[in-house]
Amino acid sequence: MSRAELLDHLVRTRIAGDVATSRENNLDHYRSLANRDPYHLFGLTFDEGWTYRDVLELMAKSAGVVADPAHREGADTIDPERTLAAVEEMGDVIAGVLATGGPRILVATGHPTGLLTVHLALARLARECGAHLLTPAEDWSYVGSGFGRRRKIRYLDDVAMLDDRGAFVHTHDPAPMEAMLAELGEDRPDLVIADHGWAGAAGEAGILTVGFADSNDPALFVGEAEGKIAVTVPLDDNVLPRHYAPLTRHLVERVTSAL
What are the strands, taking DSSP E only, across the chain? Predict the structure, then answer.
């Protein structure tokens, strides 16, 4: 696809443009982050105050949501130009790490029904470029808040996810990544490619981290603003997996062309 065609594709499939995430949901999550609700912090801590208005202003700048605080209900947006620019920036970061020769990389997703396809492609690319894909804490399990039963880390083609009785599940929880990093100890990864709490926990630990985030998940954008996340790509994180294919190809091509 040309750049114009790719931007059009992002809007048509609602990866960006007028997204499915409602304005009410976005604003509710911005308030929750401002109130330091752990579920919405993704394992990150922040140095600045980050009030509700601060978060809204940042999300308007970084993701392209409607900046007007009086817009409180209905539709909201993600700027496709911002999505594409961040994808290209992410590709440059990944390429820079791969160019070092045999880097250690962790890949994880909390959105297996949507973004898994993107992470699988990036893991495959990293292996082809000589990276060592790390798989620490496989089968580590815990009982977290909100679901009341034991879940565990499981890998699919070197991409970490959270398993619940044989099903890969959505999660915001930073605890699995924290367990993975604890097992690795001093042998820290050179790069983490992730989303949700997987990315937040890695960024909080001071590891070079790139991630994807929806317009209702402001934590990684705030983490990027404070220098804990290298790049955050704004996009709807749960459209049909096949819709991500053109964006994934563009990201892979950006990495390979930079090597």
Answer: 17-19, 76-78, 104-108, 132-133, 141-142, 151-156, 159-164, 167-169, 191-195, 209-213, 231-234
Helix axis angle for 80-98 and 245-258, nearest 10°, is 40
Query: Tens digits of per-residue pLDDT, 169-223?
Result: 999 999 999 999 999 999 999 999 999 999 999 999 999 999 999 999 999 999 9
Residues composing the chain: 259
Query: What are residue 34's phi and psi, to 5 degrees?
Result: -60, -30
Range of 225's domain?
1-259
- Give the number of other CB atoms < 10 A from CB of residue 27: 22
Which of 96, 118, 98 lies closest to 108 in space, CA to CA? Answer: 118
- Cα-based distances in Å from 19 to 112, 174, 217: 19, 26, 14
Q: How many domains does the chain have?
A: 1
- Beta-carbon count within 10 A of 182 CB: 12
Cα gap 89→230, rounded to integer Å: 9
Cα(163)–Cα(170) distance, integer angstroms: 9
Query: Could you identify the residue written with the tokens 């050179």?
Result: 190
End-to-end CA distance of the chain: 21
Q: Give the pLDDT confidence score for residue 148 in this predicted structure.
A: 74
Please name the residue that has the structure tokens 């817009």. 71
Strand partners, 194: 211
For 185-223, give one letter per residue: b (16+ CB within 10 A) or e: eeebbbbbbbbbbbbbbbbbbebbbbbbbbbbbbbbbbb
